[in-house]
Amino acid sequence: MKVSIIGGGGRVGSNAAFALQCAGIVREIQLVDANAELASGEALDLLHGASLVGDQRISSTDVKGAADSDLICITAGLRRKPDESRLDLINRNVSLYKSILDSLKAVNVKKDCIFLVVSNPVDVLTRLNIEYLGWPAKQVLGLGTVLDTVRFRSLIAQTFNYPPTQVEALILGEHGDTMTPIWSTATVGGMPLTKLLSPNQQAEIFKKTQGSGAEVIKLKGGAGYAVGLSIAEVIHSIALNRQRLLPVSSQMTGQYGLKKVCLSVPTVVGRAGVEQALEPELWPKEVSGIQASARALEETWGKISGS
User: Fold this and answer.
1) Rounded to 5 degrees, what are φ and ψ at 8?
2) Could you tell me which of 54, 63, 78 has the C-alpha nearest to residue 113?
3) Would residue 48 show up in a list of annotated catalytic residues for this protein?
4) SS (H, E, C) 44-71
């Protein structure tokens, strides 16, 4: 699999490239960035370590070089301010994202190419990727709440000294202010977390999860490592056709009564992209949370689409 990262010179794109390199699974990693010199530097730095990791091809290029990619990961975007909602980014990022799609359309990207959208607000831009480009919905995924879920699990583990890899818990809905914690199915080592954590403890951990992105931005200027690993997790499920259940953002086709809007539900991710978006039975308040995310996202979509 050839993977091109649009925005590969930035923190998120370069960290994703490093995570892909360390795994040694994809065949080729290509960095594309408006700052061509920065992308070249990142590619060169990665290339210097290649003999310790694997035999991938690593390079930088302009958008023309991405035309034959099997997967295009778009991380380019304007950075969120510490106190800014992800949805507040919409007016600043939509025109930039459209220009990226226009450039990809001009170079005739492969018809079976899969798009992984990381730029924020990711749910709105995932839908934009489908509708503006006219791309098959199954071939467009947003990173969605994968990163939120990773943070959620890690914070649960850290707070109570549980092994992080044994914590299973999900965040669904919007990657943003209306994200919904799914405690009904949350476990550690197979034990229900609702039996181990009080409602107050649950609320405190979720509050930390909601604010964790802004905290990282405040402390170091932007997230990198965890989001890079999250991106690699999705790409590897596609590359190896792992059929993993991941909370990626995809276009709803009736799940929880929702259509057209893109948000995160448990989704089977494989070589074709979105293999199946599921509708597991959840607590009523959790379903309501997902539906509230849809309403917020539809409202924003209406503002940018003119509908």
Assistant:
1) -70, -10
2) 63
3) no
4) HHHHHCHHHCCCCEEEEECHHHHCCCCE
C-beta of residue 188 within 8 angstroms of C-beta of residue 162: yes
Range list of H helices, 107-145:
122-133
Tell me, yes or no, whether 117 and 208 share the same domain: no
User: Number of folded domains in the chain?
Assistant: 2
Q: Does 64 share its domain with 195?
A: no
pLDDT digits 0-9 by tens, 135-155: 999 999 999 999 999 999 999
Can you point out the beta strands (E) in 140-257? 140-142, 167-172, 180-188, 191-192, 244-246, 249-253
Q: pLDDT (tens digit, 9 = 90+) per residue, 232-253? A: 999 999 999 999 999 999 999 9
Which helix (H) or strand (E) segment is 228 a member of? Answer: helix 225-239
Q: How far apart are CA 230 and CA 144, in angstroms?
A: 10
Active-site annotation holder among 90, 175, 230, 289 = 175
Beta pairing, strands 2-6 & 71-74: parallel
Indicate whether 154 and 128 sit together in one domain: no
Q: Do 175 and 235 fall within a single domain?
A: yes
Its domain, for residue 95, covers 2-142
pTM of the model: 0.95
279 and 257 Cβ atoms separated by less than 8 Å = no
Using the Cα atoms of residue 270, residue 121, residue 17 and residue 65 in order, give the sign of their dihedral: positive
Domain match, 150 and 47 both: no
